[in-house]
Amino acid sequence: MAHVHIPALLRAATAGREWVEAPGTTVGEVVAGLEELCPELQGRLVCEGRLVRGMAIAVDGEISSMGLLEPVDGETEVQFIAAISGG
Amino acid sequence: MSTSSYNVIGTRPPRHDGADKVTGRAIYAADFQMNGLLHGAMVRSTHAHAILKRVDTTKAAAFPGVVAVVTADDFPQTPDRIVDLGEGETPVSHLRGNVLAKGKVLYQGHAIAAVAATSLQAAEQAAKLIEVEYEPLPCVLTAVEAMAAGAPLLHGGDTNVTAHVHHAMGDSEAAFAGAAIVIEREFTTATVHQGYIEPHAATVLWNNDGRVNVWCSTQGSFVVRDVVSCLLDLPVSAVRVTPTEIGGGFGGKIPVYLEPVAALLSKKSGRPVRLVMSRRDVFEGSGPTPGSMMRVKMGADADGKLIAAQAFLAYEAGAYAGGMVGAGAMCVFAAYDIANQTIDGYDVLVNKPSTAAYRAPGAPNAAFATESVVDEIARKLKMDPLELRLRNASREGTRRADGPKFRRVGCVEVIEAMQAHPHYSAPLGEPSHAEAKRGRGVAIGYWFNIGLPSSCVISVNADGTANLIEGSTDIGGTRTSIAMQAAEVMGIPVDRIHPAVVDTDTIGYTGVTGGSRTTYATGWAAHDAAQDVIRQMKLRAAKLWQAEAVEFADGVFQAGERQMTFAELAGKMSETGGPVVGQASVNPRGAGGSFAGVIADVEVDTGTGKTTILRFTAVQDAGRAIHPSYVEGQMQGGSVQGIGWALNEEYWMNPEGRMMNASLLDYRMPTILDVPMIDTQIVEVPNPAHPFGVRGVGEANIVSPPAGIANAIRDAIGVRLYHLPMNPPAVAAAMGGQK
Amino acid sequence: MKKTYVSMQLNGEPVEFLAEPSQTLLECLRDTLHLTGTKEGCGDGNCGSCCVMLDGTLVTSCLVLGVEAEGRTVTTIEGIAAGQKLHPLQKAFIDHAALQCGICTPGFIVAAKALLDQEPDPSEERIRLWLANNLCRCTGYDKIVRAVQAAAKEIREEKQA
Ligand code: FES
Ligand code: FES
Fold first, then answer.
1. Which of B569, B586, B603 is the last residue of a domain?
2. Is B616 inside any structural domain?
3. How far is the centre of ligand 2, averaged over its atoms, from the C-alpha of B587 (Å)?
4. SS3 of A12, please?
5. Do C137 and B250 count as a contact with CB atoms less than 8 A apart?
6. Is residue B718 part of a domain?
7. Do residue B326 and residue A82 have CB atoms under 8 angstroms apart?
8. What is the pLDDT of residue C1?
9. N or C: lower Cβ tally within 10 Å for chain B?
10. Mean pLDDT, residues B526-551 taken together
11. Which of chain A's residues have a Cβ under 8 Å away from the Cβ of B699?
């Protein structure tokens, strides 16, 4: 079970919960598991197999370069954060 | 491990491109020459917001010397879709619409048409003959106005707000109720420009074989390749981008402006075409970075522990969505461990050029607000401002409101270094005249390192040197800092490595020079490529010596009694199997991130309101300083840009949305006379996620200077300023209000 | 418009070229004579990246017409090194990391040389005053001042030796 941080704007879909546990060995699977638990999240994090616009994934505090394919394990924290570029 | 355990890292060798750059030989984008070159000129909007009723190019096309004229209609009208071409996800229609307006202009300076002619003079004269008929629309110039009900809408719909970011943890409202002190203030900052000295320039040849060749000044050659191919509806492999030397970028040379237009002109004319922006074009048609309005509320207990914080951030996006507020919202309280936070950020369309990244984009605005409020809390609690910051500093395990926990970071170490710095305890000295007052301010700030892919190839030469190629355009000596990391691994002096930045056909995909990633990520690729070289060379030595295992240390290969230097073994390449070429590509996670802080002493002339920087110290965590001179250079450069942002720089717009100060005379960037020496102190808290511990250092240094100077002015005159820039009239007015 | 014939001394050699009456010396140097070491940052005299010496006087070449150079002597960044030997300023800029992107560097070196040719031992204040028309956005100027000071010292020592 990865620990998934729910962005504040989407917490209506998780009854206000900031953290939700979801199964999976990759971020993609975790999101699928999450959508099963909280159907209202469908299309809000991942749409047509891609992260929604402007969003990036952080795994254990670091921005992931593999996106939905990033491996996770039971201790992993997954966050959906704003995509940033920098100057 | 201390720096001294390295042979190359931490030293200050001369840069490889030094001779070219001090003799005028280095070729920047506008220097690039080609036979048969045509010169281009653009027509830009004279209105900030208008419907384009008619664009008539007939007269221009007939002008002597003119070979081609293009408008937005010349782009292939592919269906709109969302693409991510290195600048974040954007609809193609926005990229296309920004390089040549279609249907509507959204800011004064918005490109409308372009001409290519046999001379620049002919192109410029012909461009004046293009007739543009506008139907002016009301314009909106600040985020606050653009969010108001009834504001003119840039892209239709029912709002100019293109994104709302919201982060929350804990319960800030409840926590405020229990705070001993709560401060809430509102801040605004003006739109500012990155201000690189080299204007944008590009030359494009659409060759007869169908390939499009681009030579340009860019922070990301692969971004240019991808945008050009996307807008021209070509496969990416049809476009080859050769990055020339680049005269500064700071984020403003990530967006693509000229290249797709020059490509259209080249396609029509069958000849190479060069487009160069004037300084006015740079101000009106590129960059800038957002002006903003921010409301920050923070609460602390009586011991100075910050317990709650709220931020409302409204940042200008400019003419298209995708501004800098996302990062601003992530950074606004990043320096502090605060359990209860609520952050709201709004990305708001206004009739100004589409905003671009500028060194830690979004963070200096936010830090101006936060660090001013923190300063006020320290004053109210009569606490030393650094002590208060230290008490609340982010450290390993601190969670940001947007979710992630910090790994090992150097916030505490930066604050401690500021406390220990002689500057912090030095007397301020007597004011230079009766009307003058002196003050000292401090501030801290944070910025990320982004990851993104980088590639590197190293070929060994028989004389014991190596050629290193990579794809990160070198804006501040990164060829050398990258080569140094390879040299360290290979155990040879860095002058035996010849680094080169090559075109997009020649090297694997490499992300932009930006996001504080080049020395970090491309340096990592160089480290890995060098290890690949050493691995192969060990096999060669094993073959030569018929040895099972070969060791390598400090540039010497060894098996039992037998030894050979790198150079000796390189001389035996051909007899042991031919050339040795090492390569690597990496795609690291964005990692680490850098904290930085400033101590600023100012003298304010209470008669004129003019602020003089007396002494300035910048402290930054570099993780590991590969080339300390260039780390210091980044810190000094970021500091002085921050000083400009604090004291003078602003887009000065009239109500019609016309920039009234689009020259380097009137847009006042700091000169050498405006600033003192900038003291630097590098802190090294190695980044556990990098082979050498590198943290990117390009950006965090601009985050805290405006706030530090604001706090110093407050210290001097007893009045706080809530708007940037704090120019003489603003300071004088603030003091007047006090009296 | 008819072009005008211009002849001048450029970096110690005679050159001849045709200039449009409205063309600046900067454009003539860069586009006609293909000496692109002199840079254009603003075109209106406010950045200093186009600095050259005209008859021994420091000018911003974007504010001089090409035709005005007739019969005169021009020195650009390309004429600062003595063959293979870099000028002490050029060497000091490299050694002191006084350039990052390097676009301002030719202008700074030409301008600083003009100062050191007249004043071998300028104070920091004097250096800053002299270079106040040269903008650099990358370095924060600290290392530029130090490079000029170091070069001045080296030139003085060379002269004594
Ligand atoms: S180009 Fe001449 S001063 Fe800027
Ligand atoms: S080094 Fe880039 S402008 Fe000076």
1. B586
2. yes
3. 30
4. helix
5. yes
6. yes
7. yes
8. 66
9. C
10. 97
11. 86-87
B182 assigned to some structural domain: no
Phi and psi at B676, nearest 5°, equal -90, -175
- Mean pLDDT of all residues in B149-172: 96
Beta bridge partners of B83: B90
Q: What are the angstrom distances between the C-alpha of B617 and each of B71, B354, B383, B421?
A: 50, 33, 21, 9
User: What CATH number is attached to the domain comprising B133?
Assistant: 3.90.1170.50
Q: Residue B475 and residue C100: Cβ atoms within 8 Å? A: yes
Phi and psi based region of residue B323 (left: phi greater than 0; alpha: psi -120 to 50; beta: remaining): beta
Strand, coil or helix: B411: helix
- For the stretch B469-481, pLDDT in tens is 999 999 999 999 9
For chain A, the chains sharing at least 3 beta-carbon pairs closer than 8 angstroms are B
pLDDT at B538: 97
Contact B475 C133 (CB under 8 A): no
CA–CA gap between residue B38 and residue B173 (Å, rounded)? 63
**Domains located in chain C, CATH noted:** 4-79 (3.10.20.30), 88-160 (1.10.150.120)
β-pair partners for B674: none
Same domain? For B103 and B215 the reply is yes
Contact C40 B199 (CB under 8 A): yes
* Residue C84 CB partners (closer than 8 Å, separation 6+): none
- Ligand 1: residues within 6 Å at CB? C 40-43, 45-50, 60, 62
- Ligand number nearest CA of B637 is 2
Task: Tell me what the pLDDT averaged over chain B comes to.
Answer: 96
Residues of B in Cβ contact (< 8 Å) with C23: 121
- Are residues B21 and B55 located together in one domain of the fold? no
What domain range is B546 assigned to? 3-26+451-586
The answer to whether residues B634 and B727 belong to one domain is yes
Q: Which amino acid is at B283?
A: F
Q: CATH number of the domain that B371 lies in?
A: 3.30.365.10
Q: Are residues B415 and B332 in the same domain?
A: yes
Q: Taking CA atoms, what residue in A is nearest to B194?
A: A87
Domains, chain A, ranges and CATH? 2-82 (3.10.20.30)
pTM of the entire predicted model: 0.96
Residue with the two structure tokens 């985050």: B703
Phi and psi at residue B370, to the nearest 5°: -60, -50
Number of domains within chain B: 3
CB B300 within 8 A of CB B377: yes
Q: Which ligand gives the minimal distance to the CA of C147?
A: 2
**Spatial distance between the Cα atoms of C24 and A61, rounded to a whole number of angstroms:** 55
Residue of B15, B22, B193, B197 to test ligand 2 pocket, by largest number of atoms within 8 Å of CB:
B197
Nearest by CB: B637 against C40, C93, C140: C140
Of the partner residues A5, A53, A64, the one whose CB lies closest to the CB of residue B403: A5
* Residues B310 and B338 placed together within one structural domain of the fold: yes
| φ, ψ at C119 (rounded to 5°) | -130, 100
Report, as residue numbers or ranges, the catalytic residues of B: 699
**B564 and B682 housed in the same domain:** no
ipTM: 0.98
Task: List helix spans (H) across chain C.
Answer: 25-27, 88-95, 105-118, 124-130, 142-160
Protein residue closest via CA to atom 3 of ligand 1: C45
How many beta carbons lie within 10 A of that of residue B20, not counting itself? 15
Taking only the tens place, the pLDDT of each residue in B669-721 is 999 999 999 999 999 999 988 999 999 999 999 999 999 999 999 999 999 99
User: Backbone phi, then psi, for B721, in 5-degree steps?
Assistant: -105, 140
Could you tell me if residue B154 is inside a domain? Answer: no
C147 C-alpha to ligand 1 centroid (Å): 22
Chain A, window 29-48: residues with a beta carbon less than 8 angstroms from a chain B beta carbon: none
CA-nearest residue, atom 4 of ligand 2 = C136
Atom of ligand 1 nearest to the CA of C39: 1
